Amino acid sequence: MSGLGVPDGHMRRIRSYVRREGRITTAQRRALEDLWPRFGVADSSDRLDLGVLFGRTAPVILEIGFGDGQSLCAMAAAHPEQDYLGAEIHRPGVGRLLRDLGAQAIKNVRVMCEDACSMLANKVQDEQLHGVHLFFPDPWPKARHHKRRLVQAEFVELVRCRLVVGGYLHLATDWEHYAQHMMVVMTHAPGFENSAGPGRFAPRPQNRPFTKFERRGQRLGHGVWDLIFRRSS
Ligand SMILES: C[S@@+](CC[C@H](N)C(=O)[O-])C[C@H]1O[C@@H](n2cnc3c(N)ncnc32)[C@H](O)[C@@H]1O
Fold first, then answer.
1. Which domains does the chain carry?
2. What is the pLDDT of residues 179-189, one digit of tens each?
3. pTM for the full model?
């Protein structure tokens, strides 16, 4: 048992994505072939030893659903003192990130091409992560699809268990309804404290790079809502 009510490996599966291969460019395919051995984490059933994975002991930040990896790459380059683990199921996006990591000779990133929920439940141990980023997750706007949203009580409890005390979960979305839903879920989640004060959204952090989906939201005239909650117990 990893903590309050989330037995290891037993989180109810959230179908937060539809698997689609999409178009993969030659450069992305080449990056997947050439750079996966350097940055990729093999999909096995073993628990991760983060010290071995990164070859050192440093704070580890997990980004879930990094898309084409713009924020992950920029944050890792800006913070070489931290290590970054990315989980994304969309292979073209993984290829794009690998290409950028290789081009910039970034050393502090490891990439997983798999479902972040089962990865968190089965491969990350308790109190291993200093931060978890979930930027512009699929909003699943239709009411009948809300159960596919990643931010739900059980998921948030799993994240809490994997964070060190004092570690943070940073959520950002351009969908107002999802932002309000996130605030309700996080406010009711035991063991978290809102860094902006009760019920308040956080100011957009300067160090959060713009992502493809944030730009898309801007073009559509959407607002952006950030929530940063720290594990308090
Ligand atoms: C709307 S996109 C946002 C991408 C990126 N964060 C950005 O801001 O540009 C959501 C991404 O989350 C990924 N995703 C959804 N559920 C996931 C899961 N359970 N595990 C890993 N990736 C997931 C999708 O493949 C998609 O690339």
1. 26-231 (3.40.50.150)
2. 999 999 999 99
3. 0.95
